[in-house]
């Protein structure tokens, strides 16, 4: 990754977006850059030219796609080349990493825990994104605990999701005739497009996905009252409760993210700390 501290923040942000879209979507255009940063077409074209001078081996213009695509020699210069950068951009839609990324502001006496990054193929992500946007079917080879060596399936993806520390795609599976979650790191080979979806299997027809439920969390009731009040303050609870509203298929992921295993209770209440108050209402969402 190129040293970036000498670049103005706005230039760095634009260079990063160029790399992210080129690498993970397979194309970057002046209109995309202009829309993202509210700049004119000529200014956006100038920015792409400047980027190409800084990284001449990365982009080439493709007449058929009317945009710049990554060359085989593409190497990220202003990003890390990790899928988290692209997927975070999709989620925020307004920032690349942090509003302060690349400003060179040192913050003393702080530390963050590095988490493992799943190794994902840009070509796999590009195929999933394209299919989700165009309602296309994909022929994939996917590995699971039931088929660790991989098996062929046809899916219709509709949403990329980050949950419980990993990325997956929500998709209709033609083999099982229902919507399922497919972990991005478990796709083998590059998914191949196999035409438009058959029937209505997009996001709007995923009834579970369109269902929102409340997850109600309370302090572990085995704790003394003073310790329960402490937990309430830790989690910003109101009236002794924390209510999370999320899509039904994401309930289990939400619980795991905050450290609650709905299928296991710690024998020590100080280790458990919080518990589910409306377990019966969530029963259909918290099975493995």
Automatic annotation (TrEMBL):
Residues covered by the DNA-binding transcriptional repressor CapW winged helix-turn-helix domain: 10-91
DNA-binding transcriptional repressor CapW C-terminal dimerisation domain ranges (all copies): 213-282
GO molecular function ontology, one term from the record: DNA binding
Annotated Pfam families: BrxR_CTD, WHD_BrxR, WYL
PROSITE patterns: WYL
Residue ranges of domain WYL in the record: 124-190
Record keyword Amino-acid biosynthesis present: no
Keywords, ordered alphabetically: DNA-binding
UniProt xrefs under InterPro entries: CapW-like (IPR016634), CapW_CTD (IPR059020), CBASS_pafABC_assoc_protein (IPR051534), WHD_CapW (IPR059019), WYL_dom (IPR026881)
Coiled-coil segments: none
Lineage top rank: taxon: Bacteria
Name of the protein in its database record: Predicted DNA-binding transcriptional regulator YafY, contains an HTH and WYL domains
Organism: Aidingimonas halophila
